[in-house]
Amino acid sequence: MPDRSKSMTTTNIVYWVIWGVLTGVLWAFVNPISLVPGVIHLRIFAFLPAVIGILFGPRSGFFSGYIGTVVWSLLAGSFIPAHSLIVDGIMVGFTGLLPAVMVGRGRSFEELAADSTIIWTSAIWSFIAGVIMIFAVCASLAYLKIFPFWWSVFWIGISDIAPLVVGTPILVKFLAQRLAKAGVKMNWS
């Protein structure tokens, strides 16, 4: 049985904030490929909430995505309270929560590292979470008359889905192997 019990401690909350801020800073400053100049960039680190969620628990993944969205939108100058705090934050947090629940729940780092299906299952669940997130976020942007719905589905989909689906399985496998080898025991929250 894995030693990744569910808990809500001050330490976990500090980790959620650190992972969230790190996620937001990386999203704001490490996006070198512009898809729509000045508006949408390839979000290279879109996989962070899913990876954090699978390895450290659904709450960790959710708050990494939620806090990351708020930090990113503030740093990028695109903070819209109704959108960023409600729809975007919750749905990006969802991309950390769903893969964690479907792939990582109840499994130790050793089990994740040894699982030969981890590549496909984490990619599939990251894709599903990403598609749900894209449709909800783009509906919000269309409702607020910021971008047309299908235009934003296309461009934001390219921006987020590819890095999410490719990066999540590679990093989950790599980090699970390293954490298992190092003998790390982590609270799963």
Written description of the protein model:
With 189 residues, this protein is mainly α. It has seven helices and two strands; from the N terminus they run αββαααααα. The chain has a single domain (4-182), classed as Arp2/3 complex 21 kDa subunit ARPC3. Helix content is 73%, strand content 3%. The protein has a two-stranded antiparallel sheet. Strand 1 (34-36) and strand 2 (40-41) form a beta hairpin. Helix 3 (58-76) runs antiparallel to helix 4 (81-104). The chain is globular, with a radius of gyration of 16 Å. The two termini are 16 Å apart. Keywords: Membrane, Transmembrane, Transmembrane helix. This is Aminotriazole resistance protein. The chain crosses the membrane at residues 12-30, 36-56, 63-80, 86-106, 118-143, 149-176.
pLDDT averaged over residues: 91
The low-pLDDT segments are: 1-5
User: Beta fraction of the residues?
Assistant: under 5%
Structural class: mainly alpha
Q: What percentage of residues falls in helices of 4 or more residues?
A: over 70%
**Overall geometric form:** globular
CATH architecture: Orthogonal Bundle
Profile the largest sheet: 2 strands, antiparallel
Strand order within the widest sheet? 1-2
Terminal CA distance reads 16 Å
CATH topology: the name is: Arp2/3 complex 21 kDa subunit ARPC3
Our count of helices gives 7
Return the string of H and E elements: HEEHHHHHH
- In total, the number of strands is 2
Keywords: Membrane, Transmembrane, Transmembrane helix
Transmembrane segments: 12-30, 36-56, 63-80, 86-106, 118-143, 149-176
Protein name: Aminotriazole resistance protein
